Amino acid sequence: MEQKSKSRSMAIALAFAGTLLPGLHKFYLRQPGWGVVYLLSGFTHVGLISRAASFFEAIWYLNQGRDTFDQNYNNGILPQSSAPVDAEQVSKVAEALREIDRLRQEGLISEYEFEQKRRNLLDRIG
After folding, report:
1. 35 with 24: CB under 8 angstroms?
2. CA-CA distance, 122 to 93, in Å (whole number)?
């Protein structure tokens, strides 16, 4: 199963939000064990530590370059939104979308089938 790349700005925002509800950024960055630790400790007398750690991690992510962040949290792969888009691929997907829309309008596929195929096609271009 393909995992979506993690956005540095989203990680920063969630880490800053961690000053109120710590651990959100850890869940987002596929570190659920740490997320649980931060979240549970946030409701105890040591909650200030996990809130402060969330704040400092937000600053750390902010100071990291995008390449470093991607190396650490995306296995060195740039997020899909920053990858160049192949115009030919987009053209092929657009044509396929028009075709499945035509099939839906003619009643040859259901709305549900159309939506599944549409999402599958759009996933191909990121």
Report:
1. yes
2. 7
- Tell me the C-alpha distance between 94 and 119, whole Å: 12
Give the DSSP letter of residue 93.
H
Question: How far lies 100's CA from each of 80, 94, 103, in Å?
Answer: 25, 10, 5
Strand ranges inside 2-126, DSSP E = none
C-beta neighbour count of 37 within 10 angstroms: 16
pLDDT in tens, 32-85: 998 888 888 887 777 788 888 889 899 988 888 888 888 888 876 655 555 566
* Calpha distance 120→47 (Å, rounded): 43
Question: What is the largest distance, in Å, between two alpha-carbon atoms of the chain?
Answer: 63
pTM of the model: 0.55
